[in-house]
Amino acid sequence: MMMPRGGRLFLATCLGSLLVLVLYFQSITKPGETARTISNTVSGPGKSRRGPLQTLYNGEQLELLAAQRSLQGRRELLEQACLSTMRKRRVLSPEDLKHLIVDDKHSLIYCYVPKVACTNWKRVLMVLTSDGRYTDPLAIPANEAHVAGNLRTLSEFSVSEINHRLRSYLKFIFVREPFERLVSAYRNKFTRRYNTAFHKRYGTKIIRRHRANPEAEALEKGNNVSFHEFVQYLVDPRTQREEPLNEHWERVHSLCHPCLIHYDVVGKYETLEPDAQAVLSLTGVEGMLQFPTSGKSTRTDGNMAASFFKQISPFYQKKLFNLYRMDFLLFNYSTPEYLRTR
C-alpha cells in the first residue's frame, strides 16, 4: 500500500532531523574521547603522519602541550561558560556549518570570523589545499581568498562525512574583543569609499530609518553612515526580525556555534602570531609556511574603539553590550572600561 504524500513528507522530515541530531551529538564529543576515535596515522603521499588532533591531545607531546597551555585554558574556560549559559541545546543544521572551512589534506576545520584575520587564514588554507598551485599566502589577492568555491565548507558534505570530520579533525577558531571587531567592521564597510555595495545594501536603510531629515543624496548613496546610526541599526529590534546580521558584525557564537561544536584551539586576534604559529605547528607545516603578519599601522585597537564609543549614549551602550554579551562571556573578554552602562 502506497503511503500518502503527507505521510512521506513527514517521514522525510523526521529522518532529516534524525541525521542532524546525529551530527549534533558527534560535534560535542569531549577532547579525550575525540583523541581515542581517530586512527594513529593520516594518509599522505607515500607515507603516514600524525593528525593534528592526535598531536594536540597526545600526552607524549609534552613540549608542544607546554607551549599551548594558554590555548588549553581558553578551551576549558569556553566549556565552563557554555555549561553555565546554555539552557537548552539545539541541533545543528547545514546552514550552521557554512563558516567552517575544511582542509582534508591536513585534517583541519577552521571557522572563519570576518575582521579576525580571516583573509590571511583563508590564504593559508588555499596554500595548504592547493597541491602546489599556491605557495605564498600574500601572493593571493584578498578578493580571491573570499571567492566562493575556492575552499570547501563543512556544509557541502554528507551527514556521515560531516560526523567523521567533526570527530577526527582539528577544529580551530580565532576570536577578537567584540567591540574592537565591531568598530573595525564599521570603519571598513562604512568609511571606505570603495565599499559601495555595503553603502547601497545597508547604508541607505540605516540612514532612512535612523537619520532625521536625511538629504536625497544620502538616501541614494548611503555612504556617510555615522557610528551612532550604525549602533542604532544594530540594536533596533526590526533589524534581526527581518534577516540575520551580516557576517561582518554578526556575533561569533552565532557564526561558529562554540557551545555545539568543540573547538580544539581557540586563538585570539590579540595574540594572533603565536596562536597561528601553534596551529601551523600542530599541522606540521610550520617550517614550510609562515602566517602572514599584518603591516597595518591603523588597525582598530582598544583606544580607537573607546574614541568611537564616546559618541554613544549610555542607553545605547548598554543595549549594544547586551547584544554582544555572549561573545564577551564565552571568550573571556572583560567589559571595556570606557563603557558607561550604569
Description:
There is one protein chain. This protein is of the alpha/beta class. It has 17 helices and seven strands. The strands form two sheets. A five-stranded mixed β-sheet has the order 5-3-4-6-7. The chain has a two-stranded antiparallel sheet with strand order 1-2. A hairpin with a 4-residue loop joins strand 1 and strand 2. Helix 9 packs across helix 16 and helix 10 packs across helix 12. About 13% of the residues have low confidence.
Task: For the largest sheet, list the strands in their spatial order.
Answer: 5-3-4-6-7
How many runs of DSSP E, i.e. beta strands? 7
Helix content: 40-55%
Q: N-to-C terminal Cα separation, in Å?
A: 68 Å
What amount of the residues lies in strands? Answer: 5-15%
Number of helices: 17
- Encode the helix/strand succession as letters: HHEEHHHEEHHEHEHHHHHHEHHH
The main pleated sheet reads as: 5 strands, mixed
Overall geometry comes to globular
